[in-house]
């Protein structure tokens, strides 16, 4: 990766200079294709289904919300996908073809997502789409991808209960995120009782269902309360009082969006100091991105279970964080989903190269078993069910808005979107 | 559900729950007051109310950043300076909007709904462009965070006390302006009979502009106060708009005292039910109750006799 990147930079500089000189134009056209010719198979071989692939370009789609309430979350994913695509292009592209991007805005509106997905697949004939964030948007585009046979790389951790040949899920399904965290808190912190809390929609409810089953059936511990608040709820004083009354060892919180900020500010104001860990707070919904809105001082001491934290110490991640900051600004933060979104283009590239073709059906077949050793989170591998094998980690929130990694599973967690005994 | 607890525990929980209800009451009053003036007095359905609040929140964010960088010594009082700035920023924007948009629509009150909804989308996207799509974290002075422990169990959140104090101050100020000042008399005169108010020499257009500005300014103060308890992002205003209209309509749109009474009823009902039921169920029951009461009393809890 490194040598390629360094090797590619002068070449693109050279090309830019050639392009400037009009006289040299003919030369550049004549020379460049010959440079790539060795590894570039003919288009008729790698594209038998009429996708937008030419002799030197391949078009992909990015479909996220740039406007509306979800823009807050999806911005990071767009940035990560663009970074990955830029890096792949700097290395010479995919099968010798530069990636070109058509970006569409889902506008935080699910029917719009479906409409734009159809546009990308039918009009633009894109070879792959990187996009969607909420489960609702994914559910809206799923029939489109299955009908028109497209490929979607979906970055968000989600509730599971889905498996489509047309989707690669680069985030964790619920059991991957939840079980290891609960095991850790029971073993290391001696937690005996849990209070489950969440925003009222499918992801928190399904996740808490899995958490409850695991706490009660597998760990033999107690759930002392389970509660949901409407999305966008801003007053949590009543539930905080209930928590104080029930005295759980662990508050298990899956609150999302603007509610998140209100919840943590009010928790702190009510005198629950999370650094004392009485009760301890564990969440699966707060990444470094969300902490920027909440304020590090309001969530210091909480634990989060994710597969990726910006503070992970390994070479891949150091390079990734540096490249991300160079491209998008030094004070930016990177959360779990942003990293998962970054994997999308790389996994697609690996699948295309393994299949030796851009054809969707061949990519579907080639995807299981694909490994990525350059992932910022470490090593990942695509499972038969199109989810990723990955490690689960527990992070401890610090006042500066970063997590300190305090636990990491030794083995890769197997993705299990339809977990038996948990439904 | 109370069998496992001792009397002293129950006593302290009820005390804290009562306080939580009062805080919710203050929040409702604060967010509804501005709208009560605009909707109640002027008949303008201002769907952009939440965005005027968020403007106040962003002003607070900028001010606190400024003080942190330029004058850390003044940080403890920066919040109150921010609040005053928020009032003038939102008020000024409100007057501008009135001049450019609202005044053409006084005869078409239902169209104000669409126009201000469009305005709210424009403002949201503007915030997104200027401040970024992500929520911003507003740094508050240290003394405003945390709580006062009274006993082992009873802890009073300081930001709750501050919200209550601000609400009390703003409500009294509005009451003074509306019922004791010359400007208030003019507002009420224009509401009751516009042609007659004009005939006795009141500049009704100017009164309209300042009334709208006043309502928006109060929204800005509310937004500034809510940085203590909620989020500050381009679409955070949407979190408040439904509850705000609920409070104003339930109270009887034309009555300020009705707004206060309705905020009290809804907040107490909601916080009590939230304690005994789950959050979502509490919300459903609150809305059902409000619908039922409005079916019996379509004009809301309180009404003034207004010439139609």
UniProtKB/TrEMBL annotation, chain A:
<dbReference type="InterPro" id="IPR017777">
    <property type="entry name" value="ABC_urea-bd_UrtA"/>
</dbReference>
<protein>
    <submittedName>
        <fullName>Urea ABC transporter substrate-binding protein</fullName>
    </submittedName>
</protein>
<dbReference type="InterPro" id="IPR028082">
    <property type="entry name" value="Peripla_BP_I"/>
</dbReference>
<keyword id="KW-0732">Signal</keyword>
<feature type="signal peptide">
    <location>
        <begin position="1"/>
        <end position="38"/>
    </location>
</feature>
<dbReference type="Pfam" id="PF13433">
    <property type="entry name" value="Peripla_BP_5"/>
</dbReference>
Automatic annotation (TrEMBL), chain B:
<keyword id="KW-0813">Transport</keyword>
<dbReference type="InterPro" id="IPR001851">
    <property type="entry name" value="ABC_transp_permease"/>
</dbReference>
<protein>
    <submittedName>
        <fullName>Urea ABC transporter permease subunit UrtB</fullName>
    </submittedName>
</protein>
<feature type="transmembrane region" description="Helical">
    <location>
        <begin position="109"/>
        <end position="127"/>
    </location>
</feature>
<keyword id="KW-1133">Transmembrane helix</keyword>
<keyword id="KW-1003">Cell membrane</keyword>
<feature type="transmembrane region" description="Helical">
    <location>
        <begin position="77"/>
        <end position="97"/>
    </location>
</feature>
<feature type="transmembrane region" description="Helical">
    <location>
        <begin position="212"/>
        <end position="233"/>
    </location>
</feature>
<dbReference type="InterPro" id="IPR052157">
    <property type="entry name" value="BCAA_transport_permease"/>
</dbReference>
<keyword id="KW-0812">Transmembrane</keyword>
<feature type="transmembrane region" description="Helical">
    <location>
        <begin position="156"/>
        <end position="179"/>
    </location>
</feature>
<feature type="transmembrane region" description="Helical">
    <location>
        <begin position="239"/>
        <end position="263"/>
    </location>
</feature>
<comment type="similarity">
    <text>Belongs to the binding-protein-dependent transport system permease family. LivHM subfamily.</text>
</comment>
<keyword id="KW-0472">Membrane</keyword>
<feature type="transmembrane region" description="Helical">
    <location>
        <begin position="12"/>
        <end position="40"/>
    </location>
</feature>
<keyword id="KW-0029">Amino-acid transport</keyword>
<dbReference type="InterPro" id="IPR017779">
    <property type="entry name" value="ABC_UrtB_bac"/>
</dbReference>
<dbReference type="Pfam" id="PF02653">
    <property type="entry name" value="BPD_transp_2"/>
</dbReference>
<feature type="transmembrane region" description="Helical">
    <location>
        <begin position="275"/>
        <end position="296"/>
    </location>
</feature>
<feature type="transmembrane region" description="Helical">
    <location>
        <begin position="52"/>
        <end position="71"/>
    </location>
</feature>
